Amino acid sequence: MTYTVKLLKKEKVTHDVVGITLERPANYNFAPGQYAELTLERPDRTVEKAPFSFIGLDSDPNLRVAMKTYRGEETISAHIKRLDSGDAVQISEPRNEVVYKGPGVFIAGGTGITPFMAIFRQLYKDGGLPGNMLLYANKRGEDICFEGELHTMFGTKFISILALEDRPRNATGQIDAGFIHRHVQQLEQPFYVCGPAPFVSNVADALGELGVERKWMALYS
């Protein structure tokens, strides 16, 4: 089933990530970590559907999602970037993506942070975030999504690492076995990994190198 809803607001998250607020259909509910497929209501042409994770709370009056935008490409994200408030989009029923199985280590690369945000915000609201850690990798500081909020929620349990920039409050390099070993003492706990496929594969290899069993890894790309 699909729902036609209005785009209510767009806001800049980073230089290439936009946050979108949509109307909430009646009786439309989602669980933190779920996503919906979005498509444009454009009768003159077909636009491929694309998945976008919910980043807000289910208790919010409207729906909030985030997406990365690309210049000069005929993709749904490029079209949505050009939409104005009041324009219509279509969304699917919520679908499962990240399933929270208890406190653990979240490891995100770039916009791989977005499927985690609704989980973080709900846990923070409910007082359930202690016991979790976030390792977040980006190329440069300008790429970090929700940086201030993540510091507020996680405190010292939020560790940001940049591959191409030396910046205060950030480590420099990549999330490899050595980096994980320095920051994570307990290996028998859930590891939630999300990002581009090569990133997820490399992190999974690093965890395996450290002796983390596959049953502890939840991989999303």
Characterise the protein shown here.
This protein has helices spanning 76-81, 114-126, 147-154, 177-183, 197-210; strands at residues 2-14, 17-22, 35-40, 50-53, 63-68, 88-92, 105-109, 133-138, 158-162, 170-172, 191-194, 217-220. It has 221 residues and is of the alpha/beta class. The protein has a six-stranded antiparallel sheet with strand order 4-3-6-1-2-5. The protein has a six-stranded parallel sheet with strand order 10-9-8-7-11-12, with helices on both faces. It is globular, with a radius of gyration of 18 Å. The model has no long low-confidence stretch (mean pLDDT 92).
The stretches of 5 or more residues where confidence is low (pLDDT under 50) are none
N/C terminus separation: 25 Å
Shape: globular
Helix content: 10-25%
Oligomer: single chain
Strand order of the largest sheet: 4-3-6-1-2-5
Domain count: the total is: 2
How many helical elements? 5
Question: Looking at CATH, which topology of the largest domain would you report?
Answer: Rossmann fold
Structural class: alpha/beta
What top-tier CATH class of the largest domain fits best?
A: Alpha Beta
Work out the strand percent. 25-35%
Q: Which H/E pattern describes the elements?
A: EEEEEHEEHEHEEHEHE
Largest sheet: 6 strands, antiparallel
The CATH homologous superfamily name of the largest domain equals: Nucleotide-binding domain of ferredoxin-NADP reductase (FNR) module
Secondary-structure arrangement, i.e. CATH architecture of the largest domain: 3-Layer(aba) Sandwich
Average pLDDT, rounded to a whole number, is 92
State the total count of DSSP E strands. Answer: 12
| Alpha-carbon Rg, integer | 18 Å
